[in-house]
Design a protein that fits this description.
4-stranded antiparallel beta sheet, single chain, alpha+beta, about 40% helix, 4 strands
């Protein structure tokens, strides 16, 4: 395999649920480049920017707190509850648990250029 080649054919297209889980893990782990690759970057710019700012501030203020938070978030559990078809794509409902705290969320996922992308994430009550 050569460097810089197009291996898109080798890469399996991700399902909406896999995209949502991968996006959440990337954001939680501070891998913002990966997060951007899994979302509609225009639609999710503010969402990712907020997390990026928190990571930057923690790095400046207390790198040991960042290390602890990073470990806790890396160990978070993401459970896909259900996926529903919507007019413009899919709604993926999921639960994320980290350090004993649980949140239920909904991700709107759309297909762009043949690949699923996270367009919006909202908290569920």
């Amino acid at each position: 395999m050569s460097c810089g080649g197009n291996n898109a054919e080798e890469k399996k297209a991700l399902e909406p649920e896999e995209v949502v889980a991968g996006f959440c893990r990337a954001v939680a782990g501070g891998d913002f480049e990966e997060a951007y690759s899994l979302c509609d970057s225009a639609g999710m710019e503010d969402y990712i920017s907020r997390y990026r700012e928190v990571w930057k501030n923690l790095q400046k203020e207390d790198s040991s707190a960042l290390a602890i938070a990073s470990t806790m978030l890396a160990e978070s559990e993401i459970e896909i509850l259900k996926t529903a078809k919507e007019e413009n794509g899919r709604a993926v409902y999921y639960r994320i648990e980290a350090d004993g705290n649980t949140k239920t969320k909904k991700a709107a996922v759309v297909k762009e250029e043949g690949e699923w992308r996270v367009k919006e994430i909202t908290d569920m009550i």
